[in-house]
Amino acid sequence: MYTFSYQKPSSVADAVATLTGDDDAKVVAGGMTLIPTLKQRLAQPSALVDLGSVPGLTGIRRDGDALVIGAMTTHATVAADATVRSALPALAALAGGIGDPAVRHRGTCGGSVANADPAADYPAAVVGLGGTVITDRREIAGDDFFTGLFETALEPGEIITALRFPIPKRAGYAKFRNPASRYAVVGVMVAETAAGIRVAVTGAGASVFRVAAMEQALGGTFSPAALDGIRIEADDLNTDLHASAEYRAHLVTVMARRAVEAAS
């Protein structure tokens, strides 16, 4: 690793002040992505700002027709929480399928969203459920948050404090996972919300995206059969050693059908 200072702020304001005064400082939440990146010398921050001791960033509560989850809440906590499992079982299932037990007990939902890995699961939940990303200074709609490969709408020094998920009428998540990392080769969240059907895909492209044709079809008939005949273009999808763009295009439809089955 490179030499860097280690900061452990006691409040969000202190963390923001440290980040604002140092353009090369990085936030560390669970560290599931950042620490391996440092080990491989792919990043050289001047300081690590550890949010682990900042109060108010963990916990799950129901707020009317929505769930609010603190950004430092671990995947394992989300997966096991009785409120999540009752009100939004698709989100509990998504969290329970991330990585392995070690990753689920250290990784955080806010860290995953902020990192915006193209194969991460949480982006599909934020967009597919019509969620909102809450930061220290504003609220950002999920549709506006993810802007590209590892890119988000976060400004320098801005910290995610919580995620808000409206509770849908029904929802399901399905993914074709990498057998080693359990990242999503392709993952699809399907939800019937108060505003209509939402279908969000992760793992297939540079960033999470919605599929309007599937949303329209499921708006007519919410069943796997409604997706028959819908094909995803492979032109802008990812190709790597795990799957070609053409295979990912095929998987989007397969996983969407499975997500609808899970929701039903």
Number of strands: 14
Instruction: Give the structural class.
Output: alpha+beta
Compute the number of helices.
11
Helix and strand sequence = EHEHEEEHHHHHHEEHEEEEEEEHH
From the 3D structure, determine the CATH topology of the domain at 170-263: Enolase-like, domain 1
Helical percentage: 25-40%
Mean pLDDT: 95
Q: Taking strands numbered 1, 2, ... along the chain, how are they ordered across the largest sheet?
A: 4-5-10-6-7
The CATH architecture assignment of the domain at 170-263 turns out to be 2-Layer Sandwich
Unreliable stretches? none
The named CATH superfamily of the domain at 170-263: CO dehydrogenase flavoprotein, C-terminal domain
Radius of gyration: 18 Å
Shape: globular
Strand content: 25-35%
Main β sheet profile: 5 strands, antiparallel
Distance between the termini: 48 Å
Which CATH class of the domain at 170-263 is shown?
A: Alpha Beta
Enzyme class: oxidoreductase
Protein name: Carbon-monoxide dehydrogenase medium subunit
InterPro entries: CO_DH_flav_C, CO_DH_flav_C_dom_sf, Diverse_Substr_Oxidored, FAD-bd_PCMH, FAD-bd_PCMH-like_sf, FAD-bd_PCMH_sub1, FAD-bd_PCMH_sub2, Mopterin_DH_FAD-bd
Keywords: FAD, Flavoprotein, Oxidoreductase
